[in-house]
Design a protein that fits this description.
Layout (H helix, E strand, L loop, with lengths): L8 H21 L5 H10 L17 H14 L6 H13 L5 H9 L4 E2 L1 E9 L4 E10 L6 E5 L5 E6 L5 E6 L8 E10 L4 E5 H40 L1 E2 L2 E2 L4 H25 L4 H26 L11 H13 L4 H14 L2
Parallel strand pairs: 1-4
Antiparallel strand pairs: 2-3, 3-7, 4-5, 5-8, 6-7, 9-10
Helix pairs in contact: 1-2, 1-3, 3-6, 4-5, 4-6, 6-7, 6-8, 6-9, 7-8, 8-9, 8-10
Length: 348
Amino acid sequence: MSHQTGVSDESGELLTQLRDSVRQVIEGTGLLGAEDHIWKPSVELGWLLTAVPEELDGLGLGNTGTHAIHLELGKGLSGAPYLPATLAIDALCQSTLSDKSSWLERLTGGELVTAPLADGDLTLDDSQNLDGTLTAVQSADIASHVLAWTNNAEQLLIIALDQSGLEWQERKTWDETRRFYDVNLNALPLAKQTRLAQGSQAKDIVTRLLAQRDFALAADAVGGATALLAMTVDHLQTRVQFRRPLAMFQALKHRCADMKALTAASEAMLFDALHSAAPEQKATAAKHLACTSFAKVAEESLQLHGGIGMAAEHPCHLFLKRALLNVHLGRGGDMYEQLIAEAFLTGT
């Protein structure tokens, strides 16, 4: 058993192979590689099968596997919709849908069912029609369906994006590394949607999905912060001032050490939460620490790069914009602080 990953040695070897395959793809495409250049290998190399249980013909690596991939994709500022795709696949695995295997074959074969990466507003009226808006739905323009749940989490659905009463529009953000859309639903009949779960079962799965989303954003942030810190240290080692590399100045060493401490603490909390007895209860803290730390590292790196860090041609600003958006994805920055405070007060 690997102490670091919490998986068996055999699974650990498979996990290492998966991470290596992600690194090779990222190295081949470079930072901000084209979305389809990363999405296609994620299908062909089996990344989408990572958390699918073995009894459903998956790799059975669970959260540890998917979030290791999220971390590597974060290092490369990937724009591929791997995160929403894994949420939809996990929701299917947890459901009691009669044709679950058929759906999983479609999704792991490359058909995209996307999902909202921020809390929206979806209600079911007395006529059993769905109304509301799904927010920050990644790559909705290339998806066939979207995973959605009502505000009270009593309905968990897969909704086709090509039906009347539904429209989507691109939401422009400062972040240039991902494409997001708002999906508007107007009197969409519940009976025509694919229902994965309802009632208490739906609530349990939605609780799990919210935690999965938080963990994925945290892993993305840890990966981004790790890559940016390495880039910053490399810059300081090669940039010379007063005949000395900038890395020789003690004040700059201390600032890099602080950035390393933030990144290491975020990664440690993430993996501790993933392997805890009640991961859903620790997901909010892991996401909050990782994403706020990524933002701090990005802001500091911009300063340490000097004038070139402010240039549009340098990737520093791409990391900063992604970091700032990650803080607000999920349940929103302020909501995380409130949830963490409530957990302290109640002792949960």
